[in-house]
Amino acid sequence: MRISNAKAITQGISNIEFLKSVMNIIKKILISLLVFGIISCSNPTERQPVLPADKQVAVSTPAEAKSSFPPTVKAALDRTATRELTFNSEEHTYSSVFEYYQHRKDDSDYSVWTEKLFGRCCTEADLQYSETLEWSVTSDIDHPKYPVSQLTDTWFTKTFAFKESEQPKIDLRLDLKSKRYRTTGSNLKSHNDLLRSEDTIAYPLDLSLVNGYTKSVDLYKNNGRIKTINVFHNGQLNCVVELMDSPEIQRFSLDLAFLKNDVVTLQPISFYKGLKYDDVCLTEIQRCVCMSGYSTLNEKYSAYNDGE
Predict the structure, then answer these.
(1) How far apart are CA 205 and CA 303, in angstroms?
(2) What is the pLDDT of residues 148-169, one digit of tens each?
(3) Segment 74-90, tens digit of pLDDT
(4) If we measure between CA atoms, which residue out of 172, 152, 150 comes closest to residue 161?
(5) Which long-range contacts (CB under 8 A, 24 or more apart) does 29-32 make?
(6) pLDDT (0 to 100) of residue 90
């Protein structure tokens, strides 16, 4: 009887040891599973399902999303054009740019003139080919009293006007039919016949303009001015230009290569409010390619003959 009890006790101890071994094994398994789970959680991409190619969606990173916005270009005062404007009227002492603008009395008066905006006025000597090229400026909004033609009429006292809600599209193309300066020789070809479609006319494209209605101080303040412009190159958004709220000539540079048959569109999208009227005004846009001409253009073509 005592022997049987001893055997029972021994067997019980063995069973306990066995159970302890099993529990240790289970414990190790649970620890291993826990560690594996932590590692898996730290690298979730390994557990994401792979979608079929036709179901996958590209997600932009913040950097990619930011790069999708067009760059902003800020206009600056055009010192060159302003210096030219005042050069021939040095005998007059004017207190503001408005008085310079008002100085011109008729079409034959070139005492207030800027070659950078308008091209040559009085001589055809030493012309570069880019100086013979002009912009053709049109718009889908064209009011009879303040037409788009006044943007390139060389008068600072006339303006192009529109309503904020209209947001006109102002198109600049190369005027391939112009013969204003193609009189330097006999029977010279038109620009359209001379230039090739792959010719780079300007790179970068520099443009100057006069914002607002600059006939007088009151007209400038009472009418609206352009604040920002969307710039399109052949229909594709290139950049946003921020103009200055200033009556002086200002300029900006566009990072694009303008070819023979290209079109650049300027679309005003925000405005400086006028004190009295809801009209928005733009007085002048650069008429002559002139200094904006690409360097190789003047090496390739001449203002005086059709040779290359």
Answers:
(1) 21
(2) 999 999 999 999 999 999 999 9
(3) 999 999 998 888 776 66
(4) 150
(5) none
(6) 62
Contact 168, 268 (CB under 8 A): yes
pLDDT digits (tens, 9 = 90+) for 183-195: 656 678 889 999 9
- Give helix then strand counts, H and E, for the chain: 8, 13
Please report the pLDDT score of residue 232 as a whole number: 98
The span from the CA of 206 to the CA of 295, in Å, is 13
Residues 52-65 as b or e (16 or more Cβ within 10 Å = b):
eeeeeeeeeeeeee
Distance (Å, rounded) from C-alpha 122 to C-alpha 124?
7
State both tokens at 195.
């230039």
Instruction: Give bridge partners of residue 233 from the DSSP assignment.
Output: 236, 264
Helix (H) or strand (E) holding 237: strand 236-242
CA distance 121 to 108: 9
**What's the pLDDT score for residue 17?**
66
